[in-house]
Amino acid sequence: MLLDTTKETARVEGAGPALGVALVTGGRRGIGRAICVELARRGYDIAFLDLAYDVDARRTEKLVAEIGRRVEFEKADIANTRDMQTMLDRFVEKLGPVDCLVNNAGVQVSVRGDLLNVDEAEFDRLVGINLRGTFFLTQAVARHMLETDRQDCQRSIITITSANAGLVSPEKGAYCISKAGLSMAMQAYALRLAEAGIRVHEIRPGLIETEMTAEVNEKYSPRISDGSICALRRWGRPDDIALSIASLATGAIPYSTGDIFHIGGGMQIARL
Question: Strand, coil or helix: what is 73?
Fold first, then answer.
């Protein structure tokens, strides 16, 4: 059963002066919504984008607004890199300079199966969104951050990759490749932006209970319960990721950049 993300309304802090503006991709539901809500609680105004402006997107808007933070939505596909600068300019015009980028948007394979049967269109779709689109949006936001030169505030780029950036799942090989490439891209951005004080972090979620993982819930739940796939014997929750991102965005780990944070209940630990 999927988690009820409406429970996120239970803890609401008062709104004071904004810490800055956080831009979250794929923010209309699941992990993305949890990130928007938690960053709003910490004091950020929220810009978020997704493929559709629907009941889910409006729910995210409502949750952020109830906290007392400003919120703006843009309908966008990060695979369409031609529109990125225009979209970013609109957010900046409405909310002000972006101080935190959270690259959350991503897609899974259409069908899990033999690596030898992956076709070029499927490979290009995964790389186009998970790697290419995220790389070039990060480039646009990084340029913006350097131009605005707001060194008096916390500035960060936080990218969600996957446990599969390091753990191989041949039945979804193209997905693993896209996330591994994205991991290396963030290492490069960490070095490029360090001199400007812009911290770059990578989050590798394990098995998080969302709509994306619903199809493998029955497959993995027994292995989660018996501890054979992760040390902490439960599914991860969207809030587990959101709380980690909020801690990094607000500077709770200030002497860190280019680091990989595994949020998967110990899933990454090699074992015999």
Answer: strand
Percent of the chain with pLDDT over 70: 94
For 138, counting Cβ atoms within 10 Å of its Cβ (0-12 exposed, 13-18 middle, 19+ buried), the class is: buried
Note the pLDDT tens digit of each residue in 151-195.
788 999 999 999 999 999 999 999 999 999 999 999 999 999 999
CA distances from 182 to 71, 101, 126, 230 (A): 28, 15, 11, 24
Does the model's pTM come out above 0.85?
A: yes
> In angstroms, rounded to a whole number, what is the distance separating the alpha carbons of residues 186 and 201?
7
Q: At the topology level of CATH, where does 13-263 sit? A: Rossmann fold (3.40.50)
Exposed / middle / buried, residue 10 (Cβ in 10 Å: 0-12, 13-18, 19+): exposed
For the chain, what are the domain ranges? 13-263
